[in-house]
Amino acid sequence: MKKGNRKIFAFILVILIQVSCSDWMEQLPPQGLIREEFWKTKEDVEAVVMGAYISFADMDDLLFKFGEIRADMVKGDINQPDDEQKIMEGNIYPDNTLCAWNMFYKVINDCNDVIKFAPKVQGIDNTFSDYLLYGFLSEAYFMRSLCYFYLVRVYKDVPLVLEPTETDASNVYLPKTNGDEVLVQIRQDLENIRNYATIDGYPTFAETRGRATKASIDALLADIALWTFDYEACISHVQNIEASIKYKLMPSAEWFEIYYPGNSFEGIFEIQYDNNLNHNNKTAGLTAQYSYNYDPSDHALELFAKKYAREMVRGEDASIKKYSESDFIIWKYVGMAPDGETERFGSVANSCNWIVYRYADVLLMKAEALSQLGRFSDALAIINEIRNRADVPPLNIADSKTAYEDAIMDERALELAFEGKRWFDLLRMGRRNNYSRKSKLIEIIIRNVPSTQKRILATKLTNPMGWYLPVYELEMERNKNLVQNPFYNF
Known about the structure:
The chain is mostly helical.
């Protein structure tokens, strides 16, 4: 979080210190202060909205792992935790701690609080205008929908909780809802609230990147539409962002400003961090030279250093850094410049934003949708626009959906490397057209698996339910209404 946000962020931190909880089921606020005593002013509403953002920000490492470690762009190093190594190698069981979903539901519960109680506050606080109320509601619906979109892509079917947990006696032991139904719900929520979201009405530029706007809602709707193969809707939502003329591709010479200092004109929604306020990201700790947690995979090195030898803007010393022939690190989260030399230090060491959506991402979503509709020349124009920004030659692609799918998957791998996108991109490819490219997905998944396990894992993953994580065993014990993903009923 940048300078313009520090006062409000410091205020929210004070609030959160008083109401912090270790479990999403705990009450807000605690210490005997019941909800009726808390929800009195618009500032109370704002505090809980900001709390949802901060709870989501605490998951940046989780979003990195869910989006990357089962794919082919990263590999584990000697300090990779055992549970994460098992996930990466496909040895997944319900006792794996990475399968816990409680942090998502903590954010969801904060959002449910706002959705239920904010309208009631308006009857108490006569300074709480409709404009502010619906602005806060748009933020709550956006964050709740974003959490559910992650949950559906990671677990497939999940409990759909739309009411806050108000007392210990509340019915929070809900069964799972089919993932497709969850997506229908959040899509409807977003479409209903979109018109109330601001375009750029926050006090600072950083807040227009770090809080929900019409563009961030459109980006999420486009992503959901692409995931559900509603290509016309995806194109329409991206066109809304284009029409706003508030976003642009950063010029080649300024590409790394997407990451340092962040909040660029390309950013659509970025989770904010400020080391000065002791609100640090975790991705720097996962990817720094001496962390030995996660490194670029051999496939990533091939993309950046061999096949695309002229990949300068986003390649070596930008997305990755080479120390020796056998020592590479992910540079995006630890560098201050695309030189492979200037590392973040001191007060900015852990301040790199986590970018959920940026302009290049949604343009490539549009290209994918266009190509699946057979509008190949329109798709190619977008792909080559991204490549031109990266200072690499344009592509010529055969007019087939498969050829375009492969080219776009490669382009997204290069442009969005290590940004928590790769696994979901591959999963979307594997699910498309009634799993027609299942074998291609499996081939990619097993790239990073030890050779002795490749055949076993390839056989297991012929069942698409194995592409999703199991319900964590402690959740199964706590909530007897849950049914385990059948793939994990050993």
